[in-house]
Amino acid sequence: MATRAEIGQSVRQARKILGYTQQKLSEVTRINKTTISEIENGRFTGSFDIFERVLDAVGLQFEATHKKHNLPDWDEIEDLFSEDE
Fold it and tell me: What pTM was estimated for this model as a whole?
C-alpha cells in the first residue's frame, strides 16, 4: 500500500490533470481546503471516509496489497546476531 506522501502526490497530480484547484476540489468534495492540503502533503491522519471521498473525486481508489518485508542482505546477518563484547 502506498504511503500517505505517495497518496498525496497522486491526489495532487490527478487534481491538476482535472484542472482543479484545491479550492475547487474542496467545493466538489465538501471537504475543507486545509484538509485537502494535508492530504496532498502526506500529513493527513483522519478518517478513511475523507480519503475515499477525495480519491473518488479525482478518479483514484485505494488498493490493498500484501505488505512488503525488507529482509537483511546476507552479509548483514552476522552483524545482526553478533554479541556485544
Answer: 0.74
Distances (CA, A) of 51 to 26, 54, 70, 82: 12, 5, 27, 44
DSSP character at residue 84:
P
Helix or strand (DSSP H, E) at 47: none
The residue ranges of every structural domain in the chain are 1-85
19-23 contacts, C-beta under 8 A, 24 or more apart? 20/58
pLDDT score of 31? 97
Homologous superfamily (CATH) of 1-85 is: lambda repressor-like DNA-binding domains (1.10.260.40)
pLDDT digits (tens, 9 = 90+) for 29-81: 999 999 999 999 999 999 999 999 999 999 999 888 777 777 767 777 777 67
